[in-house]
# Entry
Amino acid sequence: MQTNDKESGIIMNKLEGKGNWNITKGKLKQKWASLTDDDLQYAEGKEEELLGRIQKRTGKTREEVEKAFNEASSSSHR
# Structure
């Protein structure tokens, strides 16, 4: 599956700030209890890998994972 730079940039922007990422991780773990801290390890420039790990663990489509990620990260900015 090919991704575009715009999507990766959006994800990277949402991951900025350790506090926001910790909130986002918590929300994703609430949504999918099967996710572990290892699944949710984030390293700058590894957004695709992160989404792939979540997708593999949950069995959800890329679109479902991105939607859940966007919902969790947008609510952490409030």
